[in-house]
Amino acid sequence: MRAQKLGAVGRGLGLLADTWTLLILQRAALGVCRYAGWRDTLNISDATLSARLRSLVDAGLLQTRPYREGGRERREYALTERGADVWKLLITTWHWEKSWVPREVPLPDIVHRACGAPAGVLTCCAACGERVGPRDTTVHRTPGTPGLEQLARQHPRRTRGRLPDDPMSLLPGAMEIIGDRWGATVLGAALTGLRSFSGIADALAISPEVLSDRLRRFVELGVLARTGDGSYRLTEKGIASFPIFACLVDWSLRWHAGIDGSPVDLTIRHRACGAVLQVRLVCDRCGAAFDRGSVSPVQPS
């Protein structure tokens, strides 16, 4: 039997829900464009870096361009429009880690260049401008679209390995929930209202061993809590991760829906206005919308 086309969100998960991929894109957004820049700042192996860069070029998130050094022609990498559009996912991931994961050395502030202030990030509906969270939305899974079991077959889970030591890349909490495709998917299931072990397992076609591991890790992280009847509920920390999930879905639908036959497999809809959620990120200081040129996760020098 011929394999079904992955849905748009499944494709987005298969591509972005990977620690090294996200860290490479983060550094590209901060100006890294050459192989040695990623290798030296991330302490990533040559084999892993080469594989991720090749995957990102093949997926259209990075493009190569030639440059000359020492009389030799070499290649460097630049974000494409598709790759640069991951900035919302990167910013919400950074903001969640800074807000909810204790660390000895705090992450740098997110700075809104328009008002010059260290800023918090508010997640809003682009259609009506209102703030949104998981309680303000409904999630619809399109019947008949391939599930995560199809993703697992087409994109075998990759080992994360040792995280970099530098504070820019050490995002241990966020990478538990977005740096692994099964973790991101289990969190998404919880955010859509699934609570029981069997309900999550059936919806995701995930093995009991993998699901038990992710649920255990999420309880230890404080994203989920066990209830008296043995089910799981989102904590405030877990609810606060909604923008990460929403940005992943938003990006996936924008860049993969209908491309190469990929169906719309999942949508988030804003209850108040009825629109399919397109995420707008807003500065909590001045109320203006962010764009990728006006915000950075690093305090400008």
From TrEMBL:
Keywords: DNA-binding, Transcription, Transcription regulation. The keyword DNA-binding applies. Transmembrane segments: none annotated. Residues 7-105, 166-260 form the HTH hxlR-type domain. SUPFAM superfamilies: Winged helix' DNA-binding domain. It comes from Pseudonocardia kongjuensis. Residues 142-165 are annotated as: Disordered. This is Winged helix-turn-helix transcriptional regulator.
